[in-house]
Amino acid sequence: MMKISSNLFRGRLSPSLIVGLTFWGLACAPAAPKEPQNGSQAKPSAAKSGNLVPLMLDLPAAAFKGTPKDLLVGPNVEPLSDKPRPPMMVPAGLKNVALNAKVTCSDKNASADMLAKVVDGNKDASDDSIIFLRKGVQWVQLDLGSVYETFAMVIWHAHNTAKVYHDVIVQTADDPDFIQNVHTIFNNDQENTSGLGVGTDREYYETNEGKLIDAKGAKARYFRFYSKGSTESSLNEYTEIEIYGRVPAVASVAQKPAVQVAASSKAE
Fold first, then answer.
1. How many domains does the chain have?
2. Do the domain assignments include residue 74?
3. In this structure, are residues 230 and 237 in contact, taking their beta carbons and an 8 Å threshold?
4. pTM assigned to the model
5. Distance in angstroms (rounded) separating the CA atoms of residues 43 and 65
């Protein structure tokens, strides 16, 4: 410890000496303990994480367990898992924009009342919830009424028994005739038997979880869902379709100040 001469205390201490002693005492004082960090500060901010949340789905009751051993499927089929599907992470604030949307289809025998079942919220495996379309390549089309930014879709063809649907294709477009700006979001027709292009996705078993598809932020008003029968029947079945999205943000158009516009006009 520093020794201070007794001669320093015979008179008054000089101001410079007082200041020096003060700084020396502060330097030797023990450091104040650090305050514990708030738990919220240790986590990544919502902006950095993209504010993503799990997509919570209201699933119907399971109608069967296990997979029949006599069900013949090809190598292009995803294995049937015995574990719950992990939730998809999506932006917060999404809603099912397909609920009660306008539905049309390729089967002219299907009535409007029958097609309305596809978007009525009833996903049960009962016969009252399923609609049947004719054989061959058929589609149902949803008109959302306006353009939405979409992030997830769920399709239930029919989960009353274990079956695999063929040529499941999902497309979006800017017009109801699917001529303008057509985009394919999902396609498991790897042999192009439906004539809509060679798909890279896999076939899958129908279950009460439905088929969850990543829409990847697709902005569209019109959605078409194709199929071409299943391992059980040549008919096409649909129970429910859900589309989770939000109204797209409108980008503001930057405008030049009036003075700058006038100046540029004179320059021309």
1. 1
2. no
3. yes
4. 0.75
5. 40
